[in-house]
Amino acid sequence: MRNFTESMKVLQIFSLVAAATTMGLAAGLFTSFSYAVMPGLARTGDRVFIDAMQRINTAILNGWFALVFAGAIVFTGLAVGVHLGGDHRAMLPWLVAAFALYAAVLVITFTVNVPLNDALAAAGDAGGLADPAAVRAEFEGRWVSWNVVRSVLSTAALVCLVWALIRSGRAL
Q1: Chain center to CA of 115
Q2: Please, which residues have CB within 8 angstroms of residue 122's CB and are 6 or more apart in sequence?
Q3: Which of 30, 112, 147, 170 is the most exposed place for a label (fewest CB within 10 A)?
Q4: Has this prediction a pTM greater than 0.90?
Q5: pLDDT in tens, 11-27
Q6: Per the UniProt record, which residue ranges are transmembrane (predicted)?
C-alpha cells in the first residue's frame, strides 16, 4: 500500500507540474499574439499581413505546438483524475476550473480561429489577390478579438493550476 501511495503522490506532482508547464506555454503563446504579433502585423500592408499569417498558420503546425496545445488539456485532465480521491481533493475545484477554462479555449480555437485560418489559406497567395483588403477585413478583427478571449481564459486556467500547485505543496 505504501508503494501505491508514494506512486500516486509522484503522479499527482508530475501531473500538476506538467499541466502548469504546458498551460503556461499555451497561455504565453496566445497572449504573445495578443500583445506583440497581431499589433505588429496590424502595422503592415494587406498583402504582407495575409502572407505572414498564412506562413505562421503553416509553421505553427509542428510537434512542439502539438505537445503544448494538447498537453495542456491532457495533463490537466490527468491531474483532475489523480486528485479525485484521498487527501488532495481540496485542489480538485481549481483543477476542474482549469480544465473547463482550457476546454473553452479549445472550443473557441476549433470553432472560430481555425476556420478563419482555413479561410485565409483558401484565399490563395497574397500576391495574387484581387482585393487583399477585403480578405484581411474578413479575418483580422474577429481572429484578434477571439484570440484575446483565448488569452484571458488560458491565463486564468494557468492561475488555477498555479494555485493548485501551491495548495499541493502545503499538503505534502
Answers
A1: 16
A2: none
A3: 170
A4: yes
A5: 989 999 999 999 999 99
A6: 63-84, 91-112, 148-166
What angle do the packed helices 2-32 and 92-108 form, to 10 degrees? Answer: 40
List, in order, residues 6 or more apart from 81 with CB less than 8 Å away: none
47 in Cβ contact with 125 (< 8 Å): no
**Containing domain of residue 46, as a range?**
2-171
Domain count, the chain: 1
Q: 86 falls in which pLDDT band (50, 70, 90)?
A: low
What is the DSSP annotation of the chain? Answer: -HHHHHHHHHHHHHHHHHHHHHHHHHHHHHHHIIIIIHHHHHTS-HHHHHHHHHHHHHHT-SHHHHHHHHHHHHHHHHHHHHTSSGGGGGGHHHHHHHHHHHHHHHHHIIIIIHHHHHHHHHT--GGG-S-HHHHHHHHHHHHHHHHHHHHHHHHHHHHHHHHHHHHHHHH-
Map 47-97 to HEC letters.
HHHHHHHHHHHHHCCCHHHHHHHHHHHHHHHHHHHHCCCHHHHHHHHHHHH
Nearest to 148 by CA among 66, 64, 33: 33
pLDDT of 1: 57
